[in-house]
Amino acid sequence: MIVWLNGTHGAGKTTTSALVAELLPDARVLDAEKVGEVLMDIKPGLPATDNFQHWEPWRPLVVETARRVLEYTGGALVMPMTVLVESYWREISDGLAGHGIPIQHFVLHADQATLRDRIQNDRVLGPSSFRFAHLEPYAEAARTWLHEEAQVIDTTHITADQAAQQIAASVLGS
After folding, report:
1. Contact of 22 with 99, CB cutoff 8 Å
2. CA atoms of 8 and 13, how far apart (whole Å)
3. Domain span including residue 83
4. Looking at residue 43, which CATH number applies to its domain?
5. Closest Cα partner for 1 from 103, 82, 139, 90?
6. Do you know which Pfam families this protein is assigned to (predicted)?
7. d(Cα 42, Cα 30) in Å, to the nearest integer?
8. Torsion angles phi and psi, residue 139, rounded to 5
9. Sequence-separated (6 or more) residues with CB below 8 Å from residue 87
10. How does pLDDT run across 79-128, given as a tens digit for each residue?
């Protein structure tokens, strides 16, 4: 099974994913961003883009990586990754479904003011124009398709631990 944690930067995906993995039996975190980093390391580089998700190989490589890891380890993979382009989400989710891998899709949501504050005051990454630039695309995706495709966990006023508890309860209850 895949437990996909979607949502924009600052919503708490990375922190929450580690906590969710601790609460689910035989769960591991697989960050699909690492697949993008592999592609970014190709020399000479792939065509210029502002987001590795636009590279055609990224999406099927995410599916294949998850499939192979699950085949090897069993259990569940908790995958924290922002996917705001609906066709990209369909390609990934359909690819996993085609391999018989169930997905529980969650969106970690916070209001815009909270997200801006978290990004501005991030002690690890610091303020990031890349992260700020994704706030409006996230809001658009949330309005048009994303919140209908997933269980929304509002992290505006709860801790990552509380979000993880809600996700684990939902996964284990199904």
Report:
1. no
2. 8
3. 2-173
4. 3.40.50.300
5. 103
6. AAA_33 (PF13671)
7. 21
8. -60, -40
9. none
10. 999 999 999 999 999 999 999 999 999 999 999 999 999 999 988 888 98
- Exposure of 66 in the CB half-sphere (CA atoms within 13 A): 33
Total number of domains in the chain: 1
Looking at the DSSP bridge assignments, the partners of residue 107 are 6, 152
Alpha carbons 69 and 73: distance in angstroms, whole number: 6
Distance (Å, whole) CA 3 – CA 21: 9
CB 162 within 8 A of CB 15: no
Confidence bin at 9 (pLDDT 50/70/90): confident
> In one letter, which amino acid is 161?
D
Rounded Cα distance between 147 and 144, Å, is: 8
Look up residue 123 and give its two tokens.
């002690």
Per-residue pLDDT reduced to its tens digit, 17-74: 999 999 999 999 999 999 999 999 999 999 999 899 999 999 999 999 999 999 999 9
Of 29, 119, 136, nearest to 77 by C-alpha is 29
Tokens of 25: 């039996």
The b/e string for 148-173 (b: 16+ C-beta within 10 A; e otherwise) is ebbebbebeeeebeebbbbbbeebee
Q: Which two tokens stand for residue 31?
A: 């960050």
* Tokens linked to 144: 């048009």
Residue 95 parent element (H or E):
helix 86-98
